[in-house]
Amino acid sequence: MIKIVIGTNRKNSNSGTIARLYQQMLKERREDAEIMSMEELPEDFAFSALYENTGKNEAFNAFLQRLNEGDKIVFVIPEYNNSFPGVLKTFFDGLPYPSPFAGKWAALVGVSTGVQGASLALSHLTDILNYLGMNVLASKPRLAQIASHLSENTLQNPIYQRFLEVQMDELIKL
Q: Would you say 118 and 18 are in contact if contact means Cβ atoms under 8 Å apart?
């Protein structure tokens, strides 16, 4: 099963909309996918699941277990302050060592209201995922100025749609 991670804990985010569209596109290709969001993490996990508390927070562990059950992971990443959300970095900081994601494949989709399409965020995240031993697809759609390309939870830009399809087809082939 493919896991789709919404890389923010912001409610009603554009990243969430893109994740749901991605899931629907996978369904049309007869691929099972589960959406997981940073919203699902325990509110105190930065204090109760990291460092000397690694492995001690049952809710964090359950989230990690669900995510780890995927054989491939799609990260839908919004751009925050020229990088990705701190909640996602904190999640990675809470992982046990060695990484449970080593050897798995990751696909990255950048979402931004600005013109860069989260380019730097995707670069930063690629570095972290490589450190964790993940294989990252080279195809990384960058959906810039996303608000002008979404209408009623539908992606209106055929080029963006095609970028997602190309990445998805590559991911499915693995």
A: no
Give the C-alpha separation, 96 to 27, whole Å: 32
The 3-state DSSP class for residue 86 equals helix
Please, what is the Cα angle at 37 between 16 and 73, to 5 degrees?
95
Distance CA 46, CA 128 (A): 18
Strands 2-6 and 33-37: parallel
Res 5: pLDDT: 98
Q: What digits encode the pLDDT tens for the residues 32-69?
A: 999 999 999 999 999 999 999 999 999 999 999 999 99
Q: Which helix (H) or strand (E) holds 77?
A: strand 72-78
pTM of the model: 0.97
Tokens 């596109």 belong to which residue? 25
